[in-house]
Structure formats: C-alpha cells, structure tokens
Amino acid sequence: MHRAAIEAVCGLQLDASTLQLRLCLPEHWPQVELTLRRAGRCLHFVLLRATASELQPRIDAGAAQLLRPGQPLAWTELAPDATFVVPLLED
User: Fold this and answer.
1) d(CA 42, CA 54)
2) Cα gap 91→80, rounded to integer Å
C-alpha cells in the first residue's frame, strides 16, 4: 500500500528497463526525495520545486545528474549508485 501511494504521488512509472517520473506532487511540497533499490542498484531522486537552471550548480558539482519530468531513464544501464535531480518548475 505504501509503495503504491509513493509511486502515485511521485508519478513513478517503472518497467523492466526504463523508468519515468510524471510528477503529481501537491503544490505546497517544496521537495521530495525518493530512493529506488532494484537489481543491485540504488537510485536516488531529489524532486525540487526549482527550475533546471537553478539546479545547475548542483549538477556541475557532479553531485547529481539532471532528469526532466517524463524523461525516460534506462535504469538497467546505470552505475550501482546514481543520484538525479528533477526540477518541478519550467525554465
């Protein structure tokens, strides 16, 4: 039950080799963090109420990769540990 609720709020769509986040977060939530453990991988997603350009310093520092809402991610091709920032606002 908890997993279904979290997947619905975060808009997580996961299949055998790809995933997408189609965000459905309440307006008053500034940030959500989601960790997905699957097939020996630990994928961490930070969904922030910010634009991609506002998140650029975090990306440039190498702390995370940019993942846009709805962008397909081939999770089976990722390193064992990966972090992504997902902007909730348009540039």
Assistant:
1) 25
2) 30
Domain of residue 37 covers 2-87
> Could you read off the pLDDT of 19-39 as tens digits, one per residue?
999 888 888 989 999 999 999
Cα distance between residue 61 and residue 16, in whole Å = 31
- Counting the structural domains of the chain, the total is 1
pTM to 2 decimals?
0.88
69-90 residue pLDDT tens:
999 999 999 999 999 999 988 8
Please name the residue ranges forming H helices in the chain.
Answer: 2-10, 52-60
Q: How far apart are CA 33 and CA 83, in angstroms?
A: 10
For the chain, report the end-to-end CA distance as a whole number of angstroms. Answer: 35
